[in-house]
Amino acid sequence: MQAGEEGVIANLCKVHAYLLESDRVDPDDRALFAKLKSEKADRGQLVDSLQALIRMMYAHYGKPVILLIDEYDVPLAKAHDADKGGLDYYPKMLDTIRGLIVSGSRFEVVSNQEHGLGRTDIVVKDRKNRRAVIIEAKKSVSEQSLEKDACAGRQQIIDKQ
Question: What is the pTM of this model?
Answer without folding.
Answer: 0.53
